[in-house]
Design a protein that fits this description.
three-stranded mixed sheet, Butyryl-CoA Dehydrogenase, subunit A, domain 3, binds flavin-adenine dinucleotide, Butyryl-CoA Dehydrogenase, subunit A, domain 2, 3 domains, 10 helices, 9 strands, about 15% strand, about 400 residues, Butyryl-Coa Dehydrogenase, subunit A, domain 1, single chain, four-stranded antiparallel sheet, alpha+beta, globular, binds 3-thiaglutaryl-CoA
Length: about 400
């Protein structure tokens, strides 16, 4: 039985299947035992806890919603979401690692790869033997990836890739990178295709992004591709156009919507426990109306976000979830999680700035989560376009 029982004000638990609860409890316990005790130190040192990767693989956390035929857990999307929730309860960097590996690297190989590519890469990625990264963002093209300038030119033997990718999670630890590049004119976003590029290929280099004050327990890198030659088999044959990487983003954004709830739950738990034990003016601070208002707001927003995730997951399992519904959940849940983390930090007073508590680390992390996988603003515009039919991006 898990030591962390988790805020569940509306008995969302009763809406889960036995298998979904079992998956959630297993990951919850693993996070309590293996992530929470060490993450503060790794965060301060600016290091991803690499030693956790084999354990995560053993638990089946990589590409958990992909088929068992490729060595994956074959879970439904609700169970997958619960995994992301529990991982991010530990740290956004740990959830990021699993999201990138599963949603941004294994998913495109599964969706756009040949049978040979799936057999060659997916089992090794599920078992953590091969770590992947996803290169879409460029130094000059973040929110607007369709304008990317990385190119892939076809030769007699294969392809030559040239360009740079920026802010790439797992970039310096990965053995394989999914690189998105234009195979036609720079103005032609329809010519974007995906490639599986081994990171030891000649001309490929990765440099760690230094000076991060957020997601410190996660590797983030710049990738440079200087005429990197790859064979014909490196191309993901069914990828075509900007839609392909955007489909991957929908997978990862779905996981983030759940993950953010986990970070908020961790902060709320910390806030409640602190409010009940910290005595000021001769009584626990939880006995003051101002702190109760903070806690009531947190509980309300977390409960709404949990219900949002569950229904989104059920829709996804029925094949009915739209990218816009995923945008709404990513936008809302990251935003409320950031608010919960900030209010927890404030409730904790001076202790709230310490790494031995969780709130400040989650708050700093969530600032990255707010920006990556489509900034909050971009998701606002995606929803604005869905509502009005009018494009306000450009
Ligand atoms: P647009 O014309 O709107 O779309 C091109 C085609 O794609 C379709 N589409 C989608 N399909 C699936 N999922 C989505 N989310 C989709 N969004 C659009 C669209 O229907 C169209 O299809 P078709 O058939 O008509 O060709 O393209 P646009 O150039 O106008 O761009 C729209 C915009 C701005 C929304 C898009 O570029 C965007 O989402 N920008 C944000 C970029 C972003 O999120 N980057 C994330 C990089 S990866 C990352 O951050 C990893 S963090 C990892 C971690 O550590 O966890
Ligand atoms: P910009 O696009 O320059 O945006 C700057 C500001 O302008 C933002 O506030 C934005 O909302 C706003 N803005 C932009 N366009 C509009 C508009 N049309 N209307 C109104 N406002 C607008 N990318 C990957 O490919 N792979 C990864 O693994 C990856 N990991 C990441 C890890 C971390 C820690 C971080 C921080 C980022 C990561 N990213 C990754 C990149 C991430 O996806 C981009 O940072 C994000 O898409 C935003 O791009 P940008 O930073 O260039 O901001």
């Amino acid at each position: 039985m898990s030591r962390f029982h988790g805020v569940d004000f509306y008995d969302v638990d009763s809406l889960l299947s036995e298998e979904e609860r079992a998956v959630r409890d297993t990951v919850r316990e693993w996070v309590d035992d293996n992530v929470t005790p060490v993450i503060g130190e790794h965060y301060l040192e600016g290091k991803f806890p690499k030693h956790l990767v084999p354990q995560m693989a053993e638990l089946g956390l990589f590409g958990a919603n992909l088929p068992e035929a490729y060595g994956c857990a074959g879970l439904n999307n609700v169970a997958y979401g619960l995994i992301m929730q529990e991982l991010e309860r530990g740290d956004s960097g740990v959830r990021s690692f699993a999201s990138v590996q599963g949603g941004l690297v294994m998913y495109p190989i599964h969706a756009f790869g040949s049978e040979d590519q799936k057999q060659q890469w997916l089992p090794r990625m599920a078992s953590g033997q091969v770590i992947g990264c996803f290169g879409l963002t460029e130094p000059d093209y973040g929110s607007n990836p369709g304008a990317m300038t990385t190119t892939a030119r076809e030769t007699r033997d294969g392809w030559v890739l040239r360009g740079a990718k920026m802010w790439i999670t797992n970039g310096s630890t990965a053995q394989a990178a999914i690189i998105w590049a234009k195979t036609g004119d720079l103005g032609d976003a329809d010519s974007i295709r995906g490639f599986i590029v081994p990171t030891d290929a000649k001309g490929f280099s990765a440099k760690d992004q230094k000076g991060k004050l957020s997601l410190r327990a996660s590797d983030t890198s710049e990738l440079v591709l200087e005429d990197v030659c790859v064979p014909k088999e490196a191309l993901l044959p069914k990828s075509g156009g900007l839609k392909s990487p955007l489909m991957c983003l929908t997978q990862a954004r779905y996981g983030i919507a759940w993950g953010a709830v986990g970070a908020a739950m961790a902060c709320y738990d910390e806030a409640v426990s602190y409010a009940k034990t910290r005595v000021m003016f001769d009584k626990p601070i939880g006995g003051f109306q101002l702190q109760q208002a903070r806690l009531a707001d947190m509980l309300t927003e977390i409960t709404k976000a949990q219900l949002l995730c569950l229904q989104l997951g059920r829709l996804k399992d029925q094949g009915k979830a739209t990218p816009q519904q995923v945008s709404l959940a990513k936008r809302n849940n990251v935003s409320i999680a950031t608010d919960v983390a900030r209010e927890t930090r404030r409730l904790l007073g001076a202790n709230g700035i310490l790494a031995e508590y969780q709130a400040m680390r989650h708050l700093a992390n969530l600032e990255s989560v707010y920006t990556y996988e489509g900034t909050h603003d971009i998701h606002t515009l995606i929803l604005g376009q869905e509502i009005t039919g009018l494009n306000a991006f450009n």
